[in-house]
Design a protein that fits this description.
Structural class of chain B: alpha/beta
Low-confidence stretches of chain A: none
Number of helices of chain B: 12
Number of domains of chain B: 2
Number of helices of chain A: 13
Distance between the termini of chain A: 31 Å
CATH topology of the largest domain in chain B: Rossmann fold
CATH class of the largest domain in chain B: Alpha Beta
CATH superfamily of the largest domain in chain B: P-loop containing nucleotide triphosphate hydrolases
Distance between the termini of chain B: 56 Å
Radius of gyration of chain B: 24 Å
Number of domains of chain A: 1
Low-confidence stretches of chain B: 1-17
Order of helices and strands of chain A: HHHHHHHHHHHHH
Order of helices and strands of chain B: HEEEHEEHEHHHEHEHEEHEHEEHEH
Oligomer: heterodimer
Radius of gyration of chain A: 21 Å
Number of strands of chain A: 0
Shape of chain B: elongated
Amino acid sequence: MRMLALLRKELLDQRQNLALFVPSLIVAVVAILLPVFVAIIIPYTTGERLSDSSDFEVALDMFRAQPGTQALDPEAAIQAYLFQFFAVMLVLIPVTSSMSLAAYSVVGEKQARTLEPLLVTPITTFELLGAKVLGAFIPSIALTVMSYVGYVLIALVLARPGVAGILLGGRATAIVFVLGPLAALAALQMAVSVSSRVNDARTAQQIGVLVILPIPGLLVGQLFGAITLSLPVIVLMAIGLLVINAGLMWLAIMLFDRETILTRWK
Amino acid sequence: MRSGNDHYRDTVTHVTGTATLVAHHLTRRFGNRLAVDDLSFEFKAGEILALLGPNGAGKTTTLRMLAGLIAPSSGSVHIDGQEMTPRAAPGLRARIGFLTEAPGLWDNLTVRENVSVYARLYGLGDPDKAVSAALALFDVADRSEDRTARLSKGLKQRVALARTIVHQPPIVLLDEPTSGLDPESAKDVRELIVGMRSQGRAVLLCTHNLDEVERVADRVAVLRSRLMAVGTPGDLRKRLFAPRLRIRLSEPAEPFAAALRSSGLGDVSVIGATLSLAGGIRSTPEIVRTLVHAGAGIESVEEEERSLEDIYIKLLNPEGALQ
């Protein structure tokens, strides 16, 4: 109940501060437009079909080994491969979004001198941090869902038939709806933990950025064939992220020292 | 005709019970620094106790210990006989309203939303009604839909006070409630504090403003890491200063001071037509007779009242030059 009360405040506060979402919106636009440029606009403007290029042969072979992709014609298969490849970028949306909200969460309350009255209430550390985490998590996931819908609609309208269907399959949805939220949760828990130990939201954001690094790593790994985000790999990564999240939640509660926050922060 | 506000005001019932907060040998260290040293006092329902002290005297640390925000290094806090332990603190904090030095309002939220969050954090059964009552009590109901960023400092303080008592706490801790307010707003806030006493709350008022203390406090505690004294202003005056008489004459007093001195009264001072002399050495009628005999025209005779400022300075500077 108390967590809900504070969560409601977090969402009301964000309603008046929509500028917080600008970085995430930029990431969302880039994530959506990147495959459109690579898979549709560039071949269209150069007049060269993707299936005529040998650059995608290896990746395409790996991709077509997955069920549901064999029925696609060669051009649609490459487009589907590219759309699914860049779907990893959608994971960046909740991560950047939640981080920009969470980095400010505790240190922002302290800077606005609103934290002490809050700590006088019977709210527990778990409830307070839970509300902060959910307050950043919910809008981030909402933004991700909207971006994903936009992503699929663009594929439906601009790409070859069958491509949008692949994006609705288990692999792409697992990336967006399992890896994305879990990575976002890890990022924002780290940001909230750091936010409760530093005097400046920027410091929290800079440290939270560390969570983003593995995501471009995934992109590059896929590009060079070092890793294929197959369903079993996604499940393994999800389990790893769950463990990391549990550890981070414990760490966040341990690091949130009311006395230090009240007596040493200036 | 009764207004809507009157209706809400009626719903803020007097606090029942006799909440008492007891600080028992409270000590708090920060590293090697002793912020609060062996502090013991108590205050009860329907009383305003003022906590006075210079900057860095440990006032805010004391308030935070009383509110269960930080733990004492040693000593204890009891509320209605129940000790403030880490386990009991969340429950006991619900019996306390704490106004921090800064209003601590969320600027992006409206007045109602600000107070409403706290009503829900305290788990009130009917939060909307409680919020309306609190806003009406502090005369901010008509601004309830305004964002707090748009309010003046005085109005923000009223909203913060409404937030402080929205859960009807029997104990209220106020840290510098009139700091930075213009005289009119400060007067309004003081009246609201006095109103809290009338509602039966135990109020601890932490302030630098001696005039404010003189106006509202029942008892005063002077703190400089240690508790220097606690009592009513009258008690402290008696304890710290010998009684003095102030005699106003109709003419310059110096020649009559000489007459008193020659009659054996040593401690006589003169300011224009007023004599100030130690009381209790000789009876007042005897002093008056001496003056009349010397030809003085006496306009008034009264016991000299020491100000709270005199008490405060005397306590903090026992070797000081106060006469």
